[in-house]
Amino acid sequence: MNIFSEVHTIREQSRAWKRQGLRVGFVPTMGYLHEGHLSLIECALQHSDRVIVSIFVNPTQFAPDEDLDRYPRDHEGDIKKITDAGAAACFLPPVEALYPEGAQTFVEVKELTRALCGVERPTHFRGVATVVAKLFHIVLPDVAVFGKKDYQQLVTIQRMVRDLLMEVEVIGAPIVREEDGLAMSSRNVYLSDVQREDARALNQALKLARQAFASGERAPAALLDVVRGQLSGREHLRPGYVELRDSFALHTAQEPLDGTERVFVSAYLGQTRLIDNAPLSGECSLPES
Ligand code: PAF
Question: CATH number for the domain including 217?
Fold first, then answer.
């Protein structure tokens, strides 16, 4: 596996593979890789001939009071995991390579980023869309894979690709969970034991909403009450948003519900903010028991 840190060398590698008729897959990450990231690489391998993984903790998607400086990093461990997972190249650029001195161009996807995480992190998606657009221009992927845990990010990137006429297929991969159902996230490492215990309520709440839907509950307010009930009264968890939205435009879900709508939750455990989501019915990675 080759490691690249310069824009022109990784771009040249990608072009060389394309000249050979190979399909290039891409998994952008911020590093500190876990099983969830490895599943994205596996998905990319299924859809392409050569997979490039980027590791870049993108400063523009963090607000000044967020965890940019303490975001967990482990380049050595990450490179081993990426190699073992079968990726062909890793792109590990310095900040100046992606944000040259004086950079003043940003990509903004408007409506999709106003709700949910966009309310709690108003500048976040502008940073994400901007860095992903830059990475796509550098890596020139035929296909890129994003996890459904960051569902709003996935649909935002799909929208950006359509709006900017980019030639890349964007695939959403299922959420990977710990044994107790907690969605895998690099930020789980911040949780103390008691916070970790309360964090399980997120996926339990989603599961209860699915069970209520399966039992015939069709009123959005009642389904959301089930979720709020599961998240409330926990010493170490402060609920953020609890919403039911359609899975495509992320509009507030309207009756009659057909099960494709998703429940979205966020919660704070101390300083750590976690998110999760699941559709009311069908495609889902929640453990059944
Ligand atoms: O999901 C992430 O890890 C990041 O938001 C991404 C897509 C790598 C952009 O920095």
Answer: 3.30.1300.10
